[in-house]
Amino acid sequence: MAEFILKEMVRLESGKQTSPHRGHESEPLEVASAAVSSEETGNPVYPPAKRCLTAHGIPFDRDKTARKVTPEDYRVYDRIVCMDASNLRLLRRIIPEDPQGKIRLMMDYAGVHRDVADPWYTGDFEKTYQDLVQGCQGLIREEGLAG
Questions:
Q1: How far apart are CA 96 and CA 93, in angstroms?
Q2: Structural domain tally of the chain?
Q3: Rounded to whole angstroms, how far apart are CA atoms 142 and 23?
Q4: pLDDT score of 27 more than 80
Q5: What's the CATH code of the domain at 56?
Q6: What is the pLDDT of residues 79-91, one digit of tens each?
Q7: Which residue, among 97, 111, 99, 103, has the nearest Cα to 34 in the 3D structure?
């Protein structure tokens, strides 16, 4: 959900299109998501997440499937944003060092030091959506992603 919310917010804020690749500031922004486990690898976006995104008018890639984070992601991406402390701990097994300070928790961008509400356990996709909107707004401001 975070990937699609952030893509849409950046698009609306700046009028820029998101793209699969970003090598320089002048190039379009790349936003991608990945998991810290292989449990969901290959699975499509979870149906209740699709319903929530649709209800809020957030477009999403219907062909998107889950993939696992790789050590190479640290080199490729400017930021790696985790949804909760548990994901951060698991990410540290894949990417043990963060010398460039690329790894952050989503809600830190919102100035709230807590995890994003996890709909997998709560079933409350709306609460997760609201958390992600707050986090993405903060990320856009802090990282200067809007026009």
A1: 6
A2: 1
A3: 20
A4: no
A5: 3.40.50.2300
A6: 999 999 999 999 9
A7: 103
